[in-house]
Design brief:
single chain, 629 residues, alpha/beta, Signal recognition particle alu RNA binding heterodimer, srp9/1, Rossmann fold, Helicase, Ruva Protein, domain 3, 6-stranded mixed beta sheet, 5-stranded mixed beta sheet, 14 strands, binds adenosine-5'-diphosphate, binds magnesium ion, binds zinc ion
Length: 629
């Protein structure tokens, strides 16, 4: 079957173009013949009724006849045609009528009238056949046309191409991406280098009885460089590299996915040693039985086929399968079993040093002015991944170009960073003075509480320029990358979140909707502190309620409440206590330092944006002149 497909694929192209021409001609001929047939009545027998035929017979007007089956095709006598007596009948020479039966009586009556008659087989002519089938031919032609259309100009050739794997094969010298193009994630690189080494010198490993790993799964947040790493492997390995995305397995026909998998693995085995890379494998690798559409769906079959193929490999195959995903939590457990993707390589969010390297790589072709210090940028961009940093450099270049600069200076990098982190500044959004004042006090409240909370991240910048969805922003940045959060840190975070609303309450004795998001975030943190992280003294280190982050409502379609009503009451109380305490802390701090709150808010109203250091100055010596009315 597969062999046939292959041949078809090769030959189909020339045949197809000729074939489509022939098809076109057949269509034209068919249509014109139909039209001719339709309009020409000259030498065609006219259909008449049986009673008319009997009239002709009794009045002795029939010269000769041909009988095909039960059809009587008669020719009228010359005299009848030339006579003026029957003008309406003279418009035709031949007629045809269906007889009830052809019996001896009938032939006798024809003999009586001296009609010359003969019998013919009623086999339809070739033309008749064509007419009979013409609607089908038309439908077939139309279908072929649609099929071709659906596949698009760049698609696999012909209707037989759909089950072919769409994997793109890269030879080692094709893409010029190597490990040098990937910065940071050194552990991942080291693991992959080992795999490349397996493929280059398999004997070295076989000699001491080491088994070559079958598959490695790259795990990491979006944009951390998983796809890039896989490409780098193909660049380094010097073996054929088949790359396909999980979503490409599943297409319009049922069963295509599985056959694509089969084809892909077959090709890889034929070209071994080789690498198969399945990007975004979660598209097919979700645990089976998930989804609302019933169990046995297309995706599941595809996944089963992948599992079967991976088991079918032996150590002689020399094929290594790489896969990438940012949702390892939804993957089917069978994929992660030893013997399949037995190596799991975590591609981490880059560290500060990693971010510097990534920035350097992506600014290789951009002119930078002398004041640019990537260490500063890297320090203030924790959590940003490779894709974000690449975007940051590009945004800075765009901003510089807009100002007709030919070098990127630090100013543009900072601006680009704000844009990427906080959203685009909406300078055109006009706020009235009252709103501005509320926002200024709200942000000043956040900032001041942050300053007085021992464990909170230092304030980096405060602004009342609306950015993205926020009307104002108080940006805090950790001094170092954080991987783990202490209870004290989280409590400080709650304090800071409450600072905005408290400032509004103290100054305006009113509350606004602006604090909605703060409250949402605070509630979420408090809930997790109690239910997930065991930070409540009353309840202790217990987990309540499973995380329900299933995209496809797979495993956890519903959960019985697994704790008593008493506990549930305590949980609610504890969550409330965390938030209420934070509110009290924030309120106290602001009331005690109300002069400083006025100072920061007024400075914000004046300057729109102030930095963390400027804020510190204002707090340390709030000049009496700007203390408010
Ligand atoms: P994903 O992990 O989502 O597959 P990609 O590999 O597609 O991420 O990364 C997107 C882009 O981000 C890459 O094309 C690359 O330019 C950039 N990038 C990501 N991580 C790195 C890195 N560690 N070093 C250099 N560039 C990176
Ligand atoms: Mg990717
Ligand atoms: Zn706020």
């Amino acid at each position: 079957m597969k062999k046939n497909n292959k041949n078809n694929k090769k030959n189909l192209n020339p045949i197809k173009s000729i074939g489509s021409n022939i098809l076109l001609w057949i269509l034209i001929v068919l249509i014109s013949v139909t039209l001719l047939e339709y309009f020409s009545t000259d030498n065609k027998p006219k259909n008449i009724s049986y009673s008319e035929y009997k009239d002709f017979l009794t009045t002795n007007m029939i010269e000769s006849a041909v009988i095909e089956g039960r059809t009587f095709i008669g020719t009228l006598k010359e005299e009848v045609l030339s006579s003026d007596l029957e003008p309406n009948q003279s418009s035709y020479k031949m007629f045809k009528s269906i007889l009830p039966e052809v019996s001896i009586d009938m032939t006798q009556s024809w003999d009586e009238k001296n009609i010359k008659y003969e019998f013919k087989d009623s086999t339809p002519s070739a033309i008749d056949y064509i007419f009979q089938f013409s609607p089908w031919i038309l439908i077939l032609a139309f279908w072929l046309f649609i099929m071709r259309r659906m596949q698009g100009p760049g698609a696999q050739s012909g209707i037989f191409g759909f089950s072919k794997s769409k994997a793109k094969m890269f030879m080692s010298d094709n893409p010029k991406i190597t490990f040098k193009n990937v910065a940071g994630c050194d552990e991942a690189k080291a693991e992959l280098k080992e795999i490349v080494d397996f493929l280059k010198k398999p004997n070295k490993y076989k000699k001491i009885g080491a088994k070559i790993p079958r598959g490695a799964l790259l795990l990491g947040s979006p944009g951390t460089g998983k796809t890039l790493l896989a490409k780098a492997v193909s660049g380094e390995a010097g073996v054929p590299f088949f790359s396909i995305s999980g979503a490409e397995f599943v297409e319009m026909f049922v069963g295509v996915g599985a056959s694509r998998v089969r084809d892909l693995f077959e090709q890889a085995k034929k070209n071994s040693p080789s690498i198969i890379f399945i990007d975004e494998i979660d598209a097919v690798g979700r645990h089976r039985g998930a989804g609302l559409g019933g169990g046995h769906d297309e995706r599941e079959q595809t996944l089963n086929q992948i599992l079967v193929e991976m088991d079918g490999f032996n150590s002689e195959s020399n094929v290594i399968i790489l896969a990438a995903t940012n949702r390892p939590d939804v993957l089917d457990k069978a994929l992660l079993r030893p013997g399949r993707f037995d190596r799991q390589i975590v591609v981490d969010v880059p560290t500060q040093e990693g971010r510097v390297q990534i920035l350097k790589i992506h600014s290789k072709n951009t002119p930078l002015s002398k004041d640019v210090d990537f260490n500063v940028i890297a320090k203030s961009t924790p959590g940003m991944v490779g894709a974000d940093l690449e975007n940051l450099i590009n945004e800075a270049a765009l901003l510089a170009a807009r100002d007709n600069k030919n070098k990127i200076s630090m100013k543009y990098l900072e601006e680009a960073k704000d844009k990427v982190q906080l959203g685009v500044a909406r300078k055109s959004m006009v706020l009235n003075d009252e709103d501005k004042k509320i926002i200024a006090y709200h942000e000043a409240g956040h900032a001041l509480v942050a300053y007085f909370s021992k464990y909170a991240d230092p304030v980096h910048k405060i602004t009342i320029v609306p950015r993205g969805m926020a009307l104002g922003v108080t940006a805090q940045l950790p001094e170092n990358d954080k991987f783990n959060y202490s209870k004290n840190y989280l409590i400080s975070k709650l304090n800071v979140l409450m600072g905005g609303r408290c400032a509004e309450k103290i100054i305006f004795s009113d509350t606004t909707t602006g604090a909605g998001n703060d409250i949402l975030v605070a509630t979420d943190i408090a809930k997790k502190m109690v239910c997930e992280w065991g930070m409540s003294d009353k309840i202790g280190p217990l987990t309540f309620g499973k995380k329900n982050e299933e995209v496809f409502l797979g495993r956890e379609i519903s959960y019985p409440k697994e704790f008593s009503n008493d506990i549930s009451k305590i949980i609610d109380e504890e969550i409330t206590t965390f938030v209420k305490n934070a509110e009290k802390f924030a309120s106290d701090v602001l009331k005690k330092n109300i002069d400083k709150l006025h100072a920061i808010a007024n400075s914000l109203l004046e300057n729109e944006t102030i930095s963390g250091n400027q804020m510190k100055d204002l707090i340390l010596n709030p000049s009496p002149s700007i203390i408010d009315k």
